[in-house]
Amino acid sequence: MEPLESRVHYNRWEDSSQEEVRVAGTVSSTEASCCRKVSQKLCTGKLGVAMKVLGGVALFWVIFTLGYITGYYVHKCK
């Protein structure tokens, strides 16, 4: 997720009385802060390490199962 500062565009026209600031995206600040809190909670600290380990183990078993099934059908005796 890119920082909010890189998504803010500031244009200053030749006439100094008119300035324009645009913020890209439609996510409100409360939704962004809620998502940020959840991601920080799940991706840092001991809970973050546990989530990464469980994700890695789950990914291993998915790949292992797909490989086993594929190998079974590829090397199946006729």
Verbal overview:
One of its GO terms (molecular function) is protein homodimerization activity. Keywords: Membrane, Transmembrane, Transmembrane helix. The chain has 2 helices and 2 strands. It is α+β, with helices and mostly antiparallel strands. The protein has 2 domains: 43 residues, no CATH class; 31 residues. It has a two-stranded antiparallel ribbon. Helix 1 packs across helix 2. It is elongated.
Order of helices and strands: EEHH
Q: Terminal Cα separation, in Å?
A: 51 Å
Major sheet:
2 strands, antiparallel
Helix/strand/pairing category: alpha+beta
Overall geometry: elongated
Radius of gyration over C-alpha positions, nearest whole angstrom: 24 Å
Total number of domains: 2
Percentage of residues in DSSP E strands: 5-15%
GO molecular function, one term: protein homodimerization activity
Keywords: Membrane, Transmembrane, Transmembrane helix
Pfam family, one: DUF4731
InterPro entries: SMIM1
In short:
With 78 residues, the chain is of the alpha+beta class. It is built from 2 helices and 2 strands. The relative contact order is 0.07.
